[in-house]
Design goal:
Blueprint lengths: L27 H17 L2 H7 L6 E3 L9 E7 L5 E14 L3 E2 L20 E2 L1 E8 L4 E7 H14 L32
Antiparallel strand pairs: 1-2, 2-3, 3-6, 4-5, 6-7
The chain binds the ligand COc1ccccc1NC(=O)N[C@H](C(=O)N(CC(=O)NO)CC1CCCC1)C(C)(C)C and zinc ion.
């Protein structure tokens, strides 16, 4: 099973590489790895197992985080209708997105980052994702809210992007915006 010991941390070069497309159908090795990534999320969301193995409660995991530079992600979270999304995906791609952006008010963290990093991480409010599932089916997902943020965070990992790369530097001239509701669509502040 995957534990925190298998998750590489910032500074490891694999986190800054562009991961390779998986040629489909996936090999048995690739299927096994993606299944274990989904299992990490399931284990980490089970209180007893997470406690027993010291797992951080994950909602998403990208293959580069276990030092596999391939375009594979696992996601286990709930969509805006509170339906469970539990997926292992090959070659996920954002095929379209809203102009509107959103962000998690408390900022973001990462399984590969062992520190708090302050700041809003701008994300598209709504995205359309195409991918191939662990089972080999091509799917199209229309996502918004927290699920959309999770998918963007994971797909960034496939392109060597860390969440804090997207936090705007401390611009002294920038008026700090009033605190907003979590994932509120940010209007155009100009
Ligand atoms: C069951 O756990 C929850 C339930 C309800 C809300 C949030 C969570 N958990 C998380 O947000 N978990 C984060 C997470 O898995 N990630 C994924 C990651 O690091 N992938 O590379 C970071 C999140 C930040 C924004 C989207 C993903 C960590 C970095 C805090 C472990
Ligand atoms: Zn991450």
């Amino acid at each position: 099973m995957i534990t925190m010991d298998d998750i590489i941390r910032e500074g490891h070069p694999t986190l800054r590489k562009r991961a390779e497309e998986v040629s489909l159908p996936a090999s048995n090795e690739e299927k096994k790895i993606l299944q274990k990534m989904v299992e990490y999320l399931i284990h980490s969301q089970d209180e007893e197992t997470a406690e027993k193995y010291g797992l951080r409660p994950g909602v998403g995991l990208a293959a580069p985080q276990i030092n596999v530079s391939k375009r594979m992600i696992a996601v286990r979270t709930h969509d805006h209708n509170d339906e469970l999304i539990e997926l292992g995906l090959y070659n996920p791609k954002i095929v379209s997105h809203s102009v509107e952006t959103t962000y998690l008010e408390g900022g973001e963290g990462c399984l590969s980052v062992d520190r708090m990093v302050e700041g809003e991480v701008p994300r598209y409010a709504r995205i359309k994702v195409k991918a191939t599932t662990l089972e080999g089916d091509e799917i199209t997902l229309r996502l918004k809210g927290f699920a959309a943020i999770v998918f963007q965070h994971e797909i960034d990992h496939l392109n060597g992007i860390m969440f804090y790369d997207r936090i705007e530097g401390n611009d002294p001239h920038k008026q700090s915006l009033p605190p907003k509701e979590v994932m509120k669509l940010s209007d155009d502040h100009g």
